[in-house]
Amino acid sequence: MYIRPVEEADLDSLHCLAKEAPVGLTSLPADRKLLADKIQESMASLYLDDPAAWRRLLLVLVDTANGKIAGISGIEREEDRAHHYRKVSNPASLQLRDTPVSPTKLGSLMLRAAYRGRGLGALLSKSRFLYIADHQQYFGGHLHAELRGWSSPRGDTPFWSEIGRLLYDKELSEMDQLRGRSPVSFASQYLSNHDVPMHFLSPDLEKNLGQVHVDAKNALRMLEQERFVHTDYIDVLDGGPILRAAIQDIYSIRTSTLLSIESRVGTEVPLDKWMISNRAGDAFRACLAPAYRDAGALLVDSEVIELLRVEPGASVRSLAARGAIVGDRHG
């Protein structure tokens, strides 16, 4: 299993993956044309010299046993006008805002169910941070992430039931799809530019504003482990939380290490799991592999060196995977 940037040939696989995505994963729409556009933007962004022109990076997890795409993760430039509610206390209300929480955001994180529980969700998520660590010029000073909002024991989305249905004439899934296809036109056509007084909300909903859906709890724990913090902002459709972190504070970036990769042929040493990236831009690769750190060297099987497409002695970015929390999907 390894991580690489998305390619044109991945369109069919991504379309199948997107059709499996839950409501709330707006950055992975089940629309072939939109997915093709996102693939092209990601591929073009790998070769840019001008950071201002950078748009997005999509990384896919490839199963080496069958060549299939097992998961995806992404980073994208935030829109100049990004709408969300801000919780304010005077007066107690939700106020619609259109300023970005940060220049770039995490998204498109999804791992197929058959591959969960093996550390691959963490690899999908953290491989983005390994990439960012070596290409910080594209990402500004902060990142944010949007997570799916709280649902009641009945399985509905109370924020939508109490607020969304009063403002919009469509179902939540339809609105979510419209936002995924065109965030700018979605905002201009559908968003109601009105504050929402807190007394409109039931006590149960008010208490759970900014809380996550049960399926997003692993992703939330992973982000908190990475030193992302909760903000006063929530999603306009499901009331889900928006978290933010300074890039210099992100744990996986701060604790990753540059080491020389070497073959451990003939060396009997205790092995631990490491996340390893080849530090390349357009040829980026990352994997989760048994390895042993010996001073400034990382000893691995020769197959790992081949998988990363580097030569022995090359500089790689490495992160010990022990205790990693697996987050399977968000925004």
Automatic annotation (TrEMBL):
InterPro entries named among the record's database cross-references: Acyl_CoA_acyltransferase (IPR016181), Arg_succinylTrfase_AstA/AruG (IPR007041)
Keywords: Acyltransferase, Arginine metabolism, Transferase
GO terms for biological process, alphabetical: L-arginine catabolic process
Any GO molecular function: arginine N-succinyltransferase activity
Top-level division of the source organism's lineage: Bacteria
The name this protein goes by in its record: Arginine N-succinyltransferase
Organism the protein comes from: Igneacidithiobacillus copahuensis
